[in-house]
Structures are given as structure tokens and as C-alpha cells.
Amino acid sequence: MVPLGHIHAAYVRSHFGTAEMTLWDSPRRDEIAFGLVMATGGRPHARIGGLAASAISVHDGQR
User: Fold this and answer.
1) Structural domains of the chain, count
2) Residue among 54, 59, 58 nearest 12 (CA)
């Protein structure tokens, strides 16, 4: 499971999510698995509370 979040602020609950990644027969002892996950927006039915994406200001970054 790879976690997803907002690109500019950590506490925007509408952008919390996960993406599932399956690797068959890997990684081995001398290998590293790297997963990159991107999304085009938040959840259709956002979680209640927290910071809204429209309310992000300069000081709401990665607290």
C-alpha cells in the first residue's frame, strides 16, 4: 500500500488515500522496490474535518 496526500499541505483530508501495488517474486535481498503513485485530484466524497484544499495558505505546508 502506497500512501497518497496533497502535494502542498499534509493535513488536507480530501486527498488522503492509498494505492495498492503488487510485486510478484521481488524484491530480492539485493534489490529495492520503488513505487511512484500520482493522482489528479482528491476523493469524490471527502473526509469530514481538516484543512480544505481551497483554504491552503503559505504557512500550511508540511507541519
Assistant:
1) 1
2) 54
